[in-house]
Records
---
Amino acid sequence: MNKLMVMTAALLAALNALATDLPEKKVLTLEAARQVAAAAAAEAQRRHARVVIAVVDDGGYPVYLERGNGAQVASSQVAIDKAHTAAIYRRPSKVFEEQVSHGRVSALALNGVVPLQGGLPLVAGDAVVGAIGVSGETPQEDEDIARVGAEALAAGAVASAVTYLDRDAVTAAFVRGAPLLETPEYKVHASRRTGPGLIEVHAYETDVVYVLEGEATFVTGGRLLDGKVTAPGEIRGSQLEGGNVQQLAPGDVVVVPRGTPHWFREIGTAPFLYFVVKPIAVPGGAS
Amino acid sequence: MNRVPLITAALVIFCGSAGGQPATTSQTVLTLAGAKQVIAAAVTEADRLKAPGGSIAVVDAGGHLIALERLDNTFAASADIAVGKARTAVLFKKPTRVFEDLVNGGRTTMVTLPDFTPLQGGVPVVVDGQVVGAVGVSGAASAQQDEDIANTAARFDATVR
C-alpha cells in the first residue's frame, strides 16, 4: 500500500467517524403535511370558516398550502408568515402577539417574526418538524383550527393513518363479515354473504368489489321501483326493473359507481366472500 | 354534485350606467378543488418524468396563492420561486419563458419590474379562453422540466373530476 492510499483510507475513516457523530432529525414529509392540513380543513369546514392553511418545514419554508373558496386573498401570505414564525422560533406565534400587546413592543424587532396569533409548531416526539399557520377568521379561531392540524400530528394520528391489518384480523373479519376500516373518505369491508340481499343504492359510495370465495348472481343498473331511504345516502328496495346480470366467481372485480342500483340476487356457492373498498364522495364536501 | 370545479363570479350588472354599458362583467374563477386538480396533474407528471423534486404553486387571476405543494427533498427556496413564476405568468398572461428569453436576449432592464420572476416554469391556466390562474413549477431537473410539468398541469380538464 502506498502512502497516498494510506492517507486516503485514514481520511475516509475520519469522515465516517464524523458522519456517525452527526445527529439525525425527523423531517416533515409532504404526505404528513397534507394530512395535517386535511385535519385543519375539516375543522374549518365544520365551523364554516373561510381560511388559508399553510404548512411549513422546520426552516419555515412552505411545504403545503390551500386557500378555501371565499377566503381573503391576503391570507395566503399571512398564513405562511404565521407558520414561519412558529417554525423558526419553535413556539406559537401568539406568544409574540401577546408580548407586543402587553408592552414589549421591542419584540417587533425580532427577525422573521410576524406577531399574529394563528401559527403553531408541529411536534413529532420531542422535535419541532415544522409549523402550521391559519389565517382568514378571528385570531382565536385561526389558532383553534391550526391546533386541530397540529394535534393530528402530535397525537400520532398522521402516522397511524397508515393501517396495517394482519391476516389473522382479516380472516376473523371474513368469518362473520365485518368492516375492516371506516373513515369519512373511504370504507374497507371484509364482506360475507350466505343468501341474497336487498337491492342497494349508495348515493355517496362507489363499491369496488374483489371476489375471494364462492359464486353469486349479481345484478347492476336498472331502475329501483320501491326504493326507501334507510340512512343518509343509503337506499334499499326489493323490486328492480332491468339491469345487467353477471355471474361472479373468485378473482372477479366489479366496480359499482355511486348511484347505481346493485343486487346480490342469488348466492350459488356459499359462503360468498368479497373484499370491498368504498370511496366516499359527499356532494359539496371538501375535496 | 360539484362536477365542474369552477364557479362563475357573481354576476351583477347595472344597466343604468353611462352609455348603457354594463358596469361589471363576469369572470370564471378557479376554485380550490380546481387548483388541487392542477397540482395533482403536476405531481403525476413529475413522477412520470422521474423529476428529482418539485414545488408546484397555483395562483388565481390576481396572482394570489390558492394551493401549493413541495415534494419531499425539494430545495426549500423552490416554494417561493414557484409562486413567483405562477404570479408572473398570470399577471402578464404569458409563460414566464417569454420573459426569461427577453432578459437573456438583452432586455436586462426588465428585471427591475416589481414582483417579477422571469424564469421558465410558469404557465397560465386558461379555461374557455379566459386566464383563470397560473401554475408555477420550480425544483425539477431543469428549467425545461419545470416548464414541461407546468404545461401538463395547465392543460387540466376543468370538466372532469
Note: Residues 167-279 of chain A form a domain with the Jelly Rolls fold (CATH 2.60.120.10).
---
Amino acid sequence: MGAQDPYGRIPRIIEKDAVIDGVELPGQWSRMFEQRVIWSHDTEGLDAIRAIPGAESLGNCYQCGKCTAVCPVDIVGDYSPRKIYRQIQIGIDLMDSPDLWLCTTCANCLRVCPKDVNMVEIMPAVRERAIALGKNVPPELAKAFENTLRHGNPMGEPARKRADWVAGAGVPVRILAKDPRPVDVLWWVECYPSYDPRGKQAAQALARLLTALGVDFAILGVEEKCSCDSQRLAGERGLFEMLAEQNIKTLGKYSFQRMLVTDPHALNAFKLHYPKLGATYDVIHYTKLLAPRVQELGLARPLEVKVTFHDPCYLGRHNGEYSAPRTLIQAIPGVEYVEMGRSKENSYCCGGGGGGMWLDSFTADHVTERLSERRVREAVEAGAEILAISCPYEVSRFEDAVKTTGNAGKLIVRDIAELLDAARPAAVN
Amino acid sequence: MRIAVLLKPVPDIVEQLEVAPDGRDLARDELTYRLNEFDDYALEEALRLKAAGAAEVVALALDSDEADSVLYTAIAKGADRAIKVTGAPEDARDPRAGALMFAAALRPLQADLVLAGVQAPDDLEGQTPPLVGAALGLPHASVVTGIELSGTSVTVTQEFSGGLVAKLQGDLPVVLGVQASREPPRYAAVSRVRAAMASGKLETVAVDVPLSAPRVELRRLYKPETTSHAEMLDGATNDAAAKLAGILRERGFGGR
C-alpha cells in the first residue's frame, strides 16, 4: 500500500495482474475484487432506523435513484427515498427532519424499486417511533389524531351528526342501529363522505345509484368510526388499533354479506389491515360494485364533456383497481375520455394519503406547489373539462387547487358517483 | 423542584350541549369530556420547565369518570406522578369546593410550583387558581403566559388588557393560572396512553373537606333567551338617518 490518499481512498494495486483463488484474470487488480469498505460514513444512523420493526428494508437501498424519478413529492420538492437514505448516511436524524412527514405513502417508489425498499412500511414505522419518543408532531396532524380519538373522525365533527347526510339523499338509507335486520351490503361511508359538504353530495349520489340498482344496503350511521388507515400510516398505530377494535366490535353486531366502501383508504384498511386484527370482510370499492352493472343504470342523459380520471393511490397502486372507474366514466353517453400523462400504475398523487390530508400547511413549506395543484394542471393540460375522482380525500384538495392555480371555470371536479347520477334519466340535478 | 398541575375534564362542546330535564345541570349522559384546554397549557408548561431543569411533575385531578383518562394521558405526556383526589362532596363542580379539595391534596405534596389553567368552560371567572392559592396561603398570579425559574425565585409574565404585559418576580412556592404555554401542548400517542393505563401508575388520595361556608347554589340552567331584537331602519338614506337621530336623541345621546 502506498501513502495515505488525501481523500481517504484505498490505493489501487496496479503492479500485478489480478489473481483470484489461483485463477489469473485478464485484467488488473481493482478494489472491486476486495470487500467493499464503507469509509465515507459510519452506519450508526442507518442501523438505528433499520432496527425499527417495519423499517428494515431501508437498508436495502443501493442508491440507484429510480424512486427519485417517480416520487410525486420530489417532482414538486426535494425529497425522495434515495435522498432520505443518503441524508441518514451523512448523519441527519430522520426523526428530527421535516422529511419524516412528507411521504404520502403513494407507493410509486416501491413499484419501481429493484430492492424492495418499502417506504409504505418504513415511514409509518419511523413516524410511530418518533411520536412515541415525544418528537414534535406537526400540530395540524396532532389535531387530526386527537379529533379521531375523541370524535371518531379527523375533522373534529360531532360524532352524533355522522349520518345527517342521509336526509339529503332523496332515497331511504337504512341505518342498522335503528333497523338491525340482516342486510346484503353494509356500506362503510367513512368520514369525508359523511361530513365534508362535497363528500356528502357524492355519498347522496351513491345512495341514489344503489337504490336504482335495487341493492339491499344499510349503513352504521353514528356507530361508524374512522377506519383509521391514514392515521396508521401517519404513525398512529395505537389509535388505528383502538378504533379498529371498536369498529370490529360494532360490525360484529350485525349480519351482512359484503362490505361496500366509498373510500379507497377504508378499502385498504378492511382488505389488508383489519384481517391482521382477526377480522376479515368481503370488501369492495363502489366503482367495482357498479362497473359490471352500469348498463342497468340506463344512463341516457348525454354529458357532452371531456373527462379525465385521477387514479387514487389506494385504489390503484395499493389495491390494483384501474379498470372499474374507467369503465364507469366511459359508459356515460357523450363523454370523451382523455388520459393524463401520469396515469394508472404511474398515477400522480393528490397529496392526501399517509396523513398528508392533515399536513397541508406543513407540507406547503417544503414544496414549490401542492401535489394537488400539480395534478390539476396536468388535467387541464390533458384538455379535460372534468376531473373525475373516486376517493373522497380528493374533492376538496382538487377543488381548492383548481382555484389556486387559476383554473376556476376551466376544470370542475366530480366524483364518479356524481357523474353517473347526473347521467341517469330521472336525475333531478 | 416539584411542580403540581391541576387538571379538570370538561364537557366537549363539539357535541351539542343539552340541559337536563330538571333544568339545573347539563344532560351529562349525552356528554363527552376532554381535558380543559387551559389545563393542557399548564401541563405543557410544567413539562417544558421539567425539560429545562430537574423537576418532578405531579398531575392531580378530582375524582370523576373521566379523571383516569386525563391523568393517564398526563403520564403518557411525561408527568412523573398522577394523583386522583377522592372524597368529593356531591357538588365538587363548585369551584370553591374543588379548590378546597385540591388544596387538601396539595398540602402534603409541598409543591414548589402549582399550575392550573387560568379558566375553564365551567369556571370562566377563573376562580380555581386564586382559591387554591388562598387556601394554601400562597401567592397567586393568573393570566400567566410565561414562567421562568431561577433557584427559589420565579419570574412570571402576566397579560393585561390593552396589550400590556407585566413581569412579576416572587419567591417559590406560588400558584399560577396559566393562559398559554410556550409551545402548543404535545401529542400523546394512544399506545403510550394505553401503556400508562396498563401500568396502573395512578395514585389515589382521599381528602376530607368540610364545606361549611356558604356556597353558590345553581337554581336554573338555560340557553340564552332572546329578549329583544335589532330594529332595521328602512327607507331612503336621509329618512333612515333622521329616524336614527331621533332614536338617539330620545335615548339621551347627543344632547341638544
Note: Chain B has a mean pLDDT of 91.
---
Amino acid sequence: MRETIRYMERTRLFYEAQGFDRSYQWAHFDDIPFHRPDKPLSESTVAIVTTAISDDDRETPMISRTARSIPIERVPERFFTDDLSWDKVTTHTDDRGSYFPLEPLIALQDSGVIGRLSPRYHFIPTEYSQRQTIDSDAPRICEACIEDEVDVAILVPL
Amino acid sequence: MTARTLETAGIATVIIGSALDIVTHCRVPRFLFTDLPLGNSLGRPFDREMQYHTVETGLALIESVDGPCVVISDLRWSDDDSWKLNYMKIDDSNREELRRMGEENRRRRKQQKAQGLRRS
C-alpha cells in the first residue's frame, strides 16, 4: 500500500508549532461493537451523518455546536466547512458530492439497492471533548435514528 | 465514536473517510478508507463516477462482512502523491504565522471561557 498521511503526527507537530504543549489524546477503545443487520440492504433505511454544518449555522461558534437532526429536504446546496480541518491547500469543498453522499443514495434508493433514505440526516460536531461526543452528541443522533427506524448509517467526516 | 454508539444500539454503520490512522486508532465497526485529501473522502470534486463507486463500495460492507473491518479503497487522487505533503505543513514560510495563530487561539479560548462557553 502507498504511504498514507500520518494525521495524528501531523496534528501533534502542527499544534506544537503553535505553542501548545499538551498533545491531543485521540480516542481509542479496546473493543469494537459490531451489529449484523437484521434485514437486507434492499429493505433498509439508510441515514447520513456528517460533520459539515449548514450555512445557516455558520455564526454558531464551534465550541457551542451540538448534534442536530435535519429533514433531508433541507440539505443545503452548500455546507459551511471553512472552520473544519480539511485539506484546504490541495482541494476545496465546493462540490457537496465529494463529502455528502445524498445523490448516490437517492440513486441507490431508486434502483432498489437500499430500501429508503432516512427522512433526516444528522450533523455531529467535530468535538475536541470526547466526553461531549460520547455522553451527549452521539446519543442524541442515535435517538433520532431510532425514531426514524434507521437500519444503516453512513458516516462521512470531513 | 458516533459509529460505535449507533452500532451498539443495533444500527449497522460504515465510516467512509480519509484519515486511516485516526479511525483505526479509535477502532470502528466498518471503515472504508479512501486515500484522498480530507474534505473529499467520497471522491474528487465533480467526479460522480468516483463518488458513486465509493458510496456503493462502502454500503456493500454492510452485508458482506461478518466482523469489524478496514477496507482500503484503490482510488487515487492523482498519479502524483505530492499533494500528501500539503496538509498541516510546517516550514520556515509559516512558523511565525503558526506561532501567532497559537496566541490568537489561546486568546479566543480565554475569551470564550470568560463568556461562559466551555469545552466539557
Note: Chain B has four helices and three strands.
---
Amino acid sequence: MSLWKIAWRSMQQRALASWLTGLSMALGVALVVSVLVIHSVISGTFSRTAQGYDLIVGAKGGELQLVLNTVFHLSKPINNIPYSYYKEFTEDEHHRGKYAPYVKLAIPYCLGDNYEGYRVVGTTPRMFDEFEYARDRKYEFAEGRNFKHENFFEGVIGSLVAHQTGLKVGDEFNPTHGVTDDEIGHKHDAFTVVGILAATGTPNDRALFVNIEGFYLLEKHAKDPPAKSVAKKEHQHDEHDHEHDEPDHEEHDLATNGHHERDDEPGHDEPVHDEPGHDEHSRAGRDEHAHDEPGHEEHDLATNGHDEHDDEPGHEEHSHAGHDGHAHDAHDHGHAHGPRKPLPENQREVTAILLLTRQFENPIKSMALSRDINDEPLVMAVKPSVAIYTLFDSIVGTLELLLLALALVVIVVAAIGVMVSIYNSMNDRRRDIAIIRSLGARRTTVMVVILLESILLSLGGGAAGVLLGHLIPRALSPWIVNQTGVAIGLFQFHWTVLEFELGLRQVTLTFPTEPVLIPGLIFLATVTGLLPAMTAYRTDVAKALSMSP
Amino acid sequence: MLRLNDVKKSFTEPDGTRLPVLDIPSFQVAAAEQMVLVGRSGCGKTTLLHVIAGISKADSGKVEVNGCDLAKLPEAGRDRFRADNIGYVFQTFNLLAGFSALENVLLGMSFARGKASAERAAALLHRVGLSHRLTHKPAMLSVGEQQRVAVARALANRPKLLLADEPTANVDARNQQQIVDLIRETCVEEQVALVLVTHTAEVAEQFERVEHLDEFNQAVASV
C-alpha cells in the first residue's frame, strides 16, 4: 500500500475537517486564479480594442477619459469640439482639411445619448465599412446591414444590446438624452434598427450606432448657430451645448466659415412646407420599415438633394405630421422635431474623431501629426494604446498586484488552516501512528505520510481552486460584459513573460502562470505540514501503544 | 531463534531516578516453538515484547532474533527488521479504523522488503474465516473478527516470530478459544515461533511451555 494511499485514507477518516481545509485552500487559489484570468482578459481586450485606432481627437482635458468614452463607452461624458475640426481631417471637392493628407480615415463620434443605459453613438457608416476593430478584423453584421448615410434615422446595434434589449432589425428605438439611463432624460425621435453587429468581444458590443445626420437633428443636439440665427433657439443647457458656447468662438467661426459657403443661404429657419410627397414616403419608411421600397429611393434622392443644397425649407411640419399621425409613444411629446434636412455645419459639434493615420507612407509627418493637433487651442490627440497602457501600468497594475498579494495571503491563511487541522488531529492519531510504526514503518515514513496529507489537501484544494477560479470569472462574464463589453471564456489563461540574458543571448520565456501554483503549493504544504509531521516523527511508539484506544 | 542474554531495561521516573523493569539473564525460544508467558501486572511482559520486537531498545545485553542482534541496530534498522521478521498481535487489536480488513492486512505488508500482495492478504483473511468481510471496516466487524484480521495482518509478511500480547483479553469466552486455536494453527502452518502473553489460566494451560516472567526477570525479584 503506497504512502499516498495511507495519507488519503487518513484524510478520508477526518472527512469533514479535510473538506473544510481543502475548501479554504480552494477559495484562496480560486481568488488568485480569477484575479489572473480577469486581468489577462481585461488587459488583453483593452489593449486589443485600443489598437483599432491610431489617434483619438477630442476636447482638451483628460486623455484617459477621452479614450474611455470613445473606445470603451465608459466614464463621464466629455466636452464637444466644433465640427470644423472634423473637417480638417477630411477632404472633398469643396474642401481639403489641413490634416487630411496625413489621415487615412477619420470617423466622427457624437456622444451624449443612451438607450436603456447603453450608449448611443452618432457616427458615419464608414465606421463599420472601413474600420477594423482589431488588427485585420472588420465589423460584420449578424443580421441586417450597415446604416446608410442618406437614411438619417437608421442605426445599427451591438450584439449585446440586441441580446439585452430584445431590439431586432426593423425595430425602432428612441435614444434618451444623457449617457446614463437616469429616466429623467428627454426621449428623442426614433431610429430604426437596420443591422445587428456580430459580437466582437469589444465594448462596441454594448453600444448603439446611429447615423450622425439623424443624431444632429435630435432635439438639443444642435449647437447655437453663430450670432445671427440664435433667435429661434432657446438656449438649452446640457452636456454638449453649454460647455462649449464660450471658448474660442472666434476660431470656431472662422473655421466654420472657411468651409461653409453653402450654409448661409437665407430661409434656413422658416418652415415652409412644400413637399407633399415627402410626408407619404416618410410614413412608409418609418412604419413599415420598408426601406428598400422604391418609394424609399425617392426619399434618398430627396435627402441627397438636401445634402447638396442644405436649405430646403420647412420640414418641421411634415415630420410632425408623419409622427403624430401614427401615434408613436415617443413621438407624442409634442416637441417640435428638428428640420429633416442636415443640420448646418455651423451648428454641428462632434465629441471625438477617431483617426487612422497614414503611418507608413509618411512616418515623420505622422509622428508630428499629434503634436500639431495638440497645438490647436481646443483639441488634443491621444494615442489610445498609450493611454490604456498608462492606465494599466499606474492603476490597474497596482490594484492587480494588491489583489494578488491579498489572494496570496488568503492562500497562506488556508495553508495555516491545513496545518492547524492536521496538527489538532495528531492527538487522535498518535495511536494510529504507533500502530503503523509497530508494523515496521520508520519515523521518517510516518512523517512523510503526514506531509503527503498536507500536500494532498493543498493540491486537491488548489486544483478545485483553479477550476473555481475559471468558473467564477466565467459565471461573472455576463455582468462583466455588461459593464465593460469584455467577454470571458472558460479557458482563459494568464501568461507570464520572463526576459533575461543568458550569456550573450536574450532569452524570452513565455509560460502560463497557473502551473507555477503547483510547486508553490507543494512548497507551502511541505512547510506547513512540517510541524504536525515532526509530531508524528517524535511519537513514542511504546507509550502510544499503551494508550487505551 | 530467539535468544536474550543479560538484557537490562529501565525507565526514568519523573524525579530522575532509574526504575529497572527488565533484567533477564537468559531467555530462549526455539524456531517454530510455541510458548506462553505469564506474570502479574507490571512485571514487564509488554516491555519485554517491545524489546524483542525492537520497538524499545534494551539498555544493555543481547537481543538476538533469527541471528540478528537487535540491540546493535539503530532504530530505522530495527523498524525494517520488525517489518520483515516479527508479527505482533495486540490486546486491543489495533486495526486502523479508516482501512478495510483487506487494507489493514496490506498495510502490514507495506513496510517490509517484499512486495505487498493482495492475493496473499485475501488468502490469509480466507484462512482466518473472513473471506466475506474483505471490504468491511473494523467498526463493522465483531471483536472476534477484528482480532482475526489482526492475526492475519501479523502473519502477512511471513515472520519468523509472532508476539501476541494478551490477544484474548478483550474477547468473550467462545471467541477466546477460537482465537487461541487460530493463532496456534496458523503459526504451525507458517512455521512461526510464538510467544503469547496471557493472564488467563485456561489459555496458559494449553501450552507445553509456560514461563513465569516474575520468576526469571530479576528486576521484578529485586523490587
Note: Residues 6 and 524 of chain A are 21 Å apart (CA to CA).
